[in-house]
Design brief:
131 residues
Length: 131
């Protein structure tokens, strides 16, 4: 289950974000969390697994018709493709009017998820593919 970040989830969010190499520095981690809180077009989601435990985090930014997945991570013992896809499935359901896109870091994950769901690049509308 995806839950939007709230201030009472701060320690959990920071712990999950610190799993990413980029956020090993405390100041960088705090700036990233503040960045998500300060923008109306940015959302940080926490993901609970089937046991109702916090197991992942997903950061997004809205840009027009697209929802950019800026970061995605799972607890080491939960790093399974099915969990990643479950997070993305839930995100796509939560924001059905937006098309999920990735950054240089997350594009490969998004492409695999789309392919798994039968959405090949050739089948996308010309306006979606940037042509």
């Amino acid at each position: 289950m995806l839950l939007k970040y709230r201030s009472d989830y701060q320690k959990i969010a920071m712990g999950l974000l610190s799993l990413l190499p980029t956020f090993k520095d405390w100041d960088r981690l705090q700036r990233e969390l503040a960045w998500y809180q300060d923008g109306p077009d940015r959302t940080l989601y926490l993901w609970k697994d089937e046991h109702d435990d916090f197991a992942g985090v997903l950061g997004t930014e809205t840009q027009g018709d697209f929802l950019i997945v800026r970061l995605i991570t799972l607890m080491p013992d939960k790093q399974l493709t099915r969990n990643t896809w479950q997070m993305l499935d839930q995100l796509a359901t939560a924001v059905p009017t937006k098309r999920l896109m990735g950054t240089l870091t997350t594009a490969k994950i998004i492409a695999k998820w789309e392919y798994h769901h039968g959405q090949s690049h050739a089948e996308r509308a010309a306006t979606d593919s940037g042509q």
